[in-house]
Specification:
79% of the residues lie in helices and 0% in strands. It is mainly α. Helix 6 packs across helix 7, helix 10 packs antiparallel against helix 15 and helix 10 crosses helix 17.
Length: 505
């Protein structure tokens, strides 16, 4: 019996070893040589183990919600302020460009000079898709530092040029492209340090542009009129802001763990990430936002001229700009904090509310026959403008995740460049034809209402997507459990066969 027992124990242990070997055996990895080994989007197929490791890495990573992140936040705030503060103060530089290259009364020169500022603002957004790819390839820090260096060179070169044609290149293209490469990483890097406070942090960062927009015009007016520094020396002083921005880029230390995909897959994905377009929620968002902007910026461009025509040249129209700037900063801080308490993609409803209010306020502008009414309209428009801007990045993180957010923001900003460029000239054309801005402002209120209605579908679409993903996960779990039961059953049958000799003996 002792021999029999020993034989049985040896058989059992051998059988267990066989079962263990079968469970631990890994599938052979084949080289990716053919098109059958590729996904439809160009990425290589991942084994279940790789998928689990990617998902686990994303779930394990938790932003520190502070620490060095506060320094990064201040650097990003400086970026937003210096980039858009200079862009929004172009109206003051515009007057001195006219004096430098001709006469303030020359209508043709006004038209040609205005394109310097328009080209500069448009290039910041137009370059965004390229910036997103470069950010994925080189990282936030290298992209931001390089962009700030290019912007510095562009401003310095603009201070030496002697013709308007060269100003198109140095200020409208070189400086603007540098600003674009410095700006977008400042939005992406925040997701490495914050998640629960991302809305508040984005509100503080984007409030930097409002702060600079309010203060920089006074500084430029003082330098140009009181100190009489001159246009060229003023541009050189503004270049100091770009130098500080270049130093700020060194603070962008990345924390997000890299994906564990194969190198070929990662390379294809970084060059052009098709995954973001597979999300129906993102597609609605990426087309709904630009649709809203065809009328969104019309009041910001044409309101001053409308005030002159309605209330006369002596009207204190600068007060309206102050109202827009101050309440926009307040709105970014308030709604940025509010967004942290709104779960998931429901943050989109804050943008829907913003477009609704801004669309209605645009239609109210022609109805204001007293200046106080226009002040009230501008206060509301500025408040909800801040709401719209400060939650763009948090919504992008919710729709596509931290790994894909760079190109998600980049392509959105690139698509925004079209309506921002086209909308105001259409309004100007209507004014020239009808000799009044009333119809232009009425029509400008329609696109924000339509775009806001489109965005209402995003939470519903995302709920359906997540429900389908949850069902698929349950089915996959059931299949894996059934497979384990089958393996155990085959193992038990093997044990009974090995035990038969004992009964015979």
């Amino acid at each position: 019996m002792t021999e029999t027992k020993t034989m049985t124990e040896m058989g059992d242990s051998a059988n267990k070893d066989i079962v263990a070997d079968e469970g631990d055996r890994k599938p052979e990895t084949k080289p990716l040589n053919g098109p059958e080994d590729m996904k439809e989007n160009g990425d290589t197929k991942q084994s279940p183990a790789e998928k689990v490791s990617d998902t686990a890495a994303e779930k394990e990573f938790e932003p520190p919600e502070g620490g060095w992140g506060w320094v990064v936040m201040l650097a990003a705030m400086w970026c937003n302020g210096s980039v858009f503060g200079i862009q929004n103060a172009f109206g003051i530089l515009f007057v001195y460009l006219l004096k430098e290259y001709g006469s303030e009364e020359d209508e043709d020169l006004k038209f040609r000079t205005s394109w310097v500022g328009s080209l500069s603002m448009g290039m910041i957004f137009f370059c965004s898709p390229i910036v997103s790819v470069v950010t994925d390839l080189l990282g936030c820090r290298v992209t931001a530092i390089g962009g700030a260096a290019v912007a510095l060179v562009g401003l310095l070169a603009s201070s030496f040029v002697k013709s308007l044609g060269l100003m198109y290149f140095t200020y409208g293209i070189v400086f603007a492209c540098g600003c674009s490469f410095a700006y977008q990483p400042s939005l992406v890097i925040l997701g490495h340090y914050f998640k629960k406070r991302l809305g508040l942090v984005n509100g503080i960062v984007t409030a930097g542009s409002s702060l600079f927009t309010i203060t920089l015009p006074f500084l430029l007016t003082y330098l140009l009129e009181t100190v009489q520094l001159g246009l060229h020396n003023t541009l050189r002083l503004l270049a100091i802001l770009m130098f500080v921005l270049m130093l700020a880029g060194f603070t962008y230390k990345p924390l997000l763990p890299p994906s564990s995909k194969t190198s070929s897959s990662r390379g294809i994905r970084r060059i052009f990430n098709v995954n973001i377009w597979k999300s129906l929620g993102y597609r609605i968002w990426a087309f709904g936002i630009p649709a809203s902007l065809y009328g969104y910026y019309v009041p910001y461009v044409h309101l001053m001229k409308h005030v002159e025509e309605r209330f006369g040249q002596d009207a204190n129209k600068e007060v309206l700009l102050m109202c827009l700037g101050i309440t926009s900063a307040v709105g970014r801080l308030i709604f940025g904090r509010v967004a942290d308490y709104v779960p998931g993609v429901n943050k989109v409803f804050l943008q829907v509310m913003s477009f609704l209010v801004i669309g209605l306020m645009s239609m109210m502008i022609p109805l204001c026959n007293i200046f106080g009414g226009l002040i009230a309209v501008c206060l509301l428009m500025g408040l909800f403008d801040g709401c719209f801007i400060c939650i763009m990045a948090p919504i992008a993180f919710e729709l596509v995740g931290a790994q894909d957010v760079s190109q998600a923001i980049g392509f959105l900003l690139g698509m925004m460049s079209v309506p921002m460029t086209v909308g105001p000239p259409i309004a100007g054309y209507l004014r020239d034809q009808l000799h009044t801005y009333d119809v232009a402002f009425y029509l400008a209120g329609i696109p924000p209402l339509i775009g806001g209605a489109m965005l209402c579908f995003i939470p519903w679409v995302e709920r359906r997507r997540r429900a389908a993903a949850a069902d698929a996960a349950v089915k996959e779990s059931e299949l894996s459990t059934l497979e384990q039961h089958k393996r155990r059953g085959s193992g038990d049958q093997g044990d009974s066969k090995m035990a038969d000799p004992e009964s015979v003996i």
